[in-house]
Please model this.
Amino acid sequence: MSGILKYLVGIETPQTLVFGITGRQGRSRSRLMKKMGTRILAGVTPGKGGQEVDGVPVFNSAFEAREAFPELNCAVTYVPAGAIRKAALEAMDAGLKFLVLTADGVPTHDAAALKEHSVKTGCKFLGPNTVGMLDTDGYLFGLIGGSATWAKKNYLPGSVGVISRSGGLSQLLGAFHCRRNLPGPREDGTFGPLWGEDYPGITSVMCTGGDPIPGVTMLDAALAFQADPRTKVIVAYGETGTTQENDLAREIVAGRINKPMIVFLGGLFTKAGVAQSHAGAMIRNVEESYEAKRKALEDAGVIVVERPDAVFAQTAKALGLHA
Amino acid sequence: MPALPEYKTRELLANIGIPIVEGIFVAATSPIPRDLPEPPVFLKAQIPGATSRAKHGLVRRADTREGLLKDLKELLAPGPWGQAEGVLVAKGADLVGEYYAACTLDFGSAERLPSGILLFSAEGGSGVEERASTLVKIPFSLMDPPPTEHIAQQLQDVANPALVAEFLHGLMNTFNRYKLMVLETNPIGVLADGSVLAIDCRAEFESRAVSRADRQLFESAPGGGEQLTPLERLVEKINEADPSGTGFLRENREEAPEGAWRVATNLCGGGGKMLWEMTTGARRDIFTMNESDTSGGLSAFKSYRVLRAILSQQGAQVLLLTGSGMAFQSQHHLAAAVWKALRESPTPLPALLRFGGTDEDKARALFERVAADLPVPVKTYRAEIFPNAMVDDIADLALTSPMQVEPPPEPEGEPVFSVKVPPADFYFYPEKCDGDEEPECVSVCPTGFLEWNVEERNIQPKEGARCIGCLMCETASLLDGNGELRIRLAMPAEVD
Model:
């Protein structure tokens, strides 16, 4: 069950620690994750060590948890934004190699500090402000799908790797690739089924998050999908702000990524310098504008579309699927 | 990015022990103090984010007591610059030189880790923008700034590197301690003995980075800062009372083009906002009344309250609700909130509703049952239908003249209990129940919070369980029961 994490961080078998497992969100999301196949070995809530949540032992710190379960290598946090820095630094120092930071509203300073420390400790993190990731090899970190029944119905194995800076669009781009007879706009201007019973399916969905300093970037995710033999097509949602799309385009030109890639690029009408509901979408210089990103991606051979539903016809084309 | 006025930035520097020129802040709302510094002094109007203050007459020198009082009164009164928070009265200093320094955040890229950046110029602050190439740039760790010796080694053309490095080290510490986005001292004054002090300073910060303990330091004084609309203030209060998820509203300050459809929007998440913006950004025939974001697992109670604010916008002709199309939060709960808002608002709007994600079928089914009884038409969409198709229906549904209806009466009697977070009052009418069996409104509670007390034929909250504010109980009571349970969701202030 290594899935995409093998190519992202070299983890063959994810063994997971949940920060904030005793809280309402931590408790319910841990149930969802377990039902989706994630191996949760332990939880952390300072001051609640010794308790159990649905049979999962709770520790006071990541260090205590790792001492009891040395095989722990991943962590998911369901703690408030203001507590993320402390929790993530602790997880890194305890030797974990991959973290998913779901909280929205993490100070940019904290994200920058975590990135600095992640390099020192060799730990990668997804987020902040992410709905997490899902792999059809059998694990989920975060909130994707909301309930296991819904997630199992909507995210089915296949050949599309999904990257997105938006939580909702991560879930949408993943789920719609798994719908039989999905209707949508076709290249010839008509509207109707884009494929038949044989849907493309997905390998993994990775939400890099809506913040200005993401841990795992679109480029990191694309490189993992490039290395993942299950993935035939990479589909992404990008937007203004940050250099993620520009960095991605540069590496495609350099030849490090050659799988077909389709990007729904948002922000055509985003004004420079104006705060956005995704903090990371604010345009701070010309390179971060819609126009610059679109040019960079198209020059690199990426198919760029302006509507999310236009993605699916392009996926069908890349995979040779027909209605 | 919110800006901090100089007098507040001085407090941050002082807290870290950075020397600052002597001064006193006179608030616009307070009487002028008697212990003003003796002239000559500089008077600086405190307006967050204001630039080129000297050019606009907002910085003045007073050489006499009379001149000081005259200028002070002028600057404290509303003027072309708006209303200043107050005036900083700073003493003059005998300077032999000026330096410039600022800290900013480098967000990083594929080639570069994010870091702090210290900018320094030994040539002073005036015209520093034009002399960008002369700036010394020192990247620094946000966790562990470099020692003063390291900074001193990189300072050229400075007679007093150790003292300046100590000052700059303090600047980095201030920047990191308060997680600022920009911290600028312009100029740093050099005194005859070689020591340095901050003459003028400013900061920009991220609201999300302000800790509870520091909140007072970053709050704007009355009369200053961005002017929120009453509805925006209302939504702020809604967020204070119910911190679940995201509840955001910003009204459009622009005038609607003549003949354009005025659309009130409930956009769910950054993806939903981007879909809407990509769909309508170039259209002159659609005017978006407001930005909004209700997402991130907020309660249906909060969705309802934000929706009531959205619906009360004057001049709106239609409501459009969309997320990205695959939300993890229950669309059934969201639909219950929309239904409640449309039936209880005195200014309901025809609605175009796109539900996508968990329980989306239940959300649409709910409106199939209730739409006919609402005072406005409602059209629901499957997630596969995107906003670019929804906008084609605006003209068919939009109001052509303002609509005011009589909302249903408030629940009668006293609540059987109230919930603090998310705030709600629960009313129960046992006489409307059939027999002694547990009513549907209790059995649908997803967390087991509601308990049926068969002896008293009443409901009660279960100890240890939690109300998540989903509205499933009231929805079941109205649709499958006899209206035995009602929930009153008081608004923080009158919006209608």
User: Anything to note?
Assistant: Chain A touches chain B through 67 residues (CB under 8 Å). Chain A has a mean pLDDT of 95. DSSP finds eleven helices and 16 strands in chain A. The longest strand of chain A covers residues 157-164.
